[in-house]
Design brief:
Chain lengths: ~170, ~600
Amino acid sequence: MKEQGVVQKKVCMLGGFAVGKTSLVKRFVTGQFSEKYHTTIGVKIDQKSQRVDDTEMLLVLWDVYGEDDFQKVRASYLQGSAGYLLVIDGTRKETVEVARQLHTLAVQTMGPVPYVLVINKYDLKESWQVEPIIYEDLARNACLVLQSSAKTGEGVEVAFAELAKQMLKV
Amino acid sequence: MAPPSRPSLPSLPKSSPEVSPEDSQGFSYLRRLLLAPEQTELERLRGRLEQFTLQPQDVGRVLPDAIRLRAKQDSRLLASMIPITQEALSLSIKQSPQLISDSIAPILGSAIRKAIAHAIREMVQSLHQALEDSMSWRGLLWRWEAIRTGKSFAEVVLLHTLRFRVEQVFLIHKKTGLLLNHVVAEGVSGQGEEVISGMLTAIQDFVRDSFGQPQDQGLESLRIGDLTVWIEQGSGAILAGVIRGAPPMELREVFQETLETIHAQFSELLQAFKGDATAFQETRLPLEDCLQAQFEKTPQGLPLVFWILLGLLLLGVGIWAVQARLDHQRWVQLVERVGQEPGMVVTSVQEQGSKTIFYGLRDPLAINPEQILLDFGYSSDQAVFRLTPFMDLTPEFIHRRAMIQLRPPSSVVVSWEGTALILAGEASHAWIQQTQLVGPLIPGVTLIQMGQLVDTDLNQFETLKAKLEGEAIRFRPGKSSLSQDQRSSILRISETLQEIDRTATILNITPHIYIQGFTSPEGGKEINRPLSLLRSKTVLNELAIGSVRAINLQTIGMGPTAVDEPLSPTGIGVSQGRQVGFQVVVAPDRASESRQ
């Protein structure tokens, strides 16, 4: 039976192939399902409790398989999301364009919902290829832009906490 | 809603500067003359509009109809009233709990009775099932299977007897895939239902997209092993039931009806859902109605083991009943025996806890009632006697009491004629005297007859008296001294006198013993009388009797004859020649007293 007073929100993890979405989720939650769901139906779902001020939230994270030449992100998976994390791999410039396409798809599907732009793999800063000017258009409407590292955990909690806070305002 | 616009008033021509005051007054007069009624009404309406306030009476008139009409349109009014009603109810319960309690008691009472009846039915069914499963051959096979496979026995029984059971029901928001509510069957543990809810939605989306199905279409069923997931699609929510076994198609209808009901009640909440599923807690009851189950029908009739157990039970009950009957009879006999026991009167018998208390009367000579208890095999812990002492005046107890108080010697023969005591045989003088004193005081004894009772001490006295009176001590002519040959007679007479004294003491009499001296007729009167007295005194002096307590010895000189002078108190004078004789005299009254 559902717990009373808990606000659930569906959150999508969007980004190109191997940008580190699953690693970010792993950092954030303890998973229940195997990752093979990614290659079967293209999504893996986890949940995480999050407190925002006095509100207890349950984030249902839809870790959508990264878009590549072989598999497209299914728009139906994005329906009903209250927010999303748009993830770019800081060491691969081409992931910005994939993120841009996914952002467009998200806006079309979900409407204007809060999102956090995450530049991942900050632990590989020496091989950084992505400059802010490249993703300036994506950052413009984001509620937060931050650099993260799923490896060190840097920025992960902040990204989810900020997204939860913004989703609650809507 | 736009505010009511003020009604426009007819515009009146403004007075031109050229109009003189006289003309203006005339115009006003004309206007009043022509439009006075309308103008008055107009002024009244204007005043009402300017001071318009909503009166409670006005609202009260339209409120019932307004609520009814609004409720027909949609459920928004209902939804907005829910929190107010809940708060009002909560406050009312806090302030007047008794009122609420009284109001719901009739409903609750019925519901509780129904629930108890249901629980008892389930318990009986469960017991029956447990017996069936545990004791039957089939049950033993299942038990073996449980041991072999490492599963619990209950699990094996469930697998074999379960037709179907709805283990979990999910109510999922269609658009977001978020969980609205979730119920599980008893004994089933739910885990990660929010994620399962999302995955079910994702799988549906995947299948729908893959096969190009429209949005309103979706998966209806998933199946793996003996688990089936039935999914019912609604416009705003999805109902998914996880079922073990083979569900009947009727269950589909149950799911559909439940989903329709939920949509009817929560359509607006479903549309406006933003993640807080609190309002959907109210779907719990309809969802729980979906948690149905069906088991294999148990075969008709009961297993043999059941009948054996029942037989043993009945046998045990029978033995117990017979034993109880025998115990009861024994107890009744005990009560009767106590009631009929001589010298005992039972007035009432009361049960106090595990003890029985007998109240009544008891003669001290009656049997100890605790002995009766022991005779019947009961202990003193089981019964208590509270009997007040009393005196039983039935002949049996009169006789018993007399025997105890008189303690007759074995030489006495006791017999009764009713309450008259008849004593015969021989007894000592002391016992006879005691009986004469005590006998009449014994309660219930009306008469004591002692005519046939011989006083042994008195007999002894008479014998000794005769013996003494038969003795004679002879003297030589003219002599008053004893010859040697008479010494043995003196000794024998002395012993006889001592015995007479002892017997007289017992008889409490004082016999007078006259030692009578005699002479022969020879010689003169002057010589014989003193000589006879001298002879009696000689004998008295010679008698070695020591101190005597009862007898009274007296010497008398009888002379040659007893005819001339009455020398003895009895008037009997016997000439014995030259000798001394004895006469024992007991006062007639004393003798008769001692005889009675």
